[in-house]
Design a protein that fits this description.
Keywords: Hydrolase. One of its GO terms (molecular function) is hydrolase activity. The protein is of the alpha/beta class. It has a single domain, classed as Class I glutamine amidotransferase (GATase) domain (Rossmann fold), CATH 3.40.50. The protein is about 35% helix and about 20% strand. Helix 1 packs across helix 6.
Length: about 180
């Protein structure tokens, strides 16, 4: 199966990072959790997660998708990391999937990936100031526009992960089966 790189910056949202990774792993994708600055990242609510690798150790050529969880101050830490912005642009230039949820779509926008695209994100006016003028999110739980995928927030994690899986070629039956099994 295809490989996915998910970046953990201190202050990430637990559900969006671990939930997305878990759902995608259940669908047999190989997900690498990459710490932005350290092997251990502390989430927005204090949960500590050990990354599989440091971002600088990961070879972007190995991955079909790049995923950014939201959370605060995690999304700000991603937004301020020039190497994340450069990596997003490179993945996009190569036609690979780029995905962000909650506050993290602002990082996609900074990299120019939301120009002329539909997207969603956490509905907080304070976050919208990080967006380019005229860029406004849709109210949907998850939006796929080309190879760019966005999710609204923690409650959208199953829809967000499903959209990533679909973009990477997972069958509808596999996606429905995995998601249905979580909401018996």
């Amino acid at each position: 199966m295809k490989k996915i790189l998910l970046i953990l910056a201190d202050g990430f949202e637990e559900i969006e990072a671990v939930g997305t990774a878990d759902i995608l792993r259940r669908m047999k994708f190989e997900v690498t959790l990459a710490g932005l600055n350290a092997r251990q990242a502390t989430a927005s609510h204090g949960t500590r997660v050990m990354a599989d690798a440091l971002l600088d150790e990961a070879d972007p050529a190995e991955f079909a998708a790049l995923v950014l969880p939201g959370g605060m101050p995690g999304a700000i830490n991603l937004y301020n990391a020039s190497r994340v912005e450069a990596l997003l642009r490179e993945f996009h230039r190569q036609g690979k999937v780029t995905a962000a949820i909650c506050a993290a779509p602002m990082v996609l926008d900074k990299a120019g990936l939301l120009d002329h695209r539909r997207f969603t994100m956490y509905p907080d006016e304070a976050l919208f100031r990080y967006l380019k003028p005229g860029h406004r999110p849709q109210p949907d739980m998850a939006v796929t526009d080309g190879t760019v995928i966005t999710g609204k927030g923690p409650g959208a994690t199953p829809a967000f992960a499903s959209a990533i899986a679909a973009a990477l070629g997972a069958s509808d039956a596999l996606i429905r089966g995995q998601i249905a099994g979580m909401f018996f």
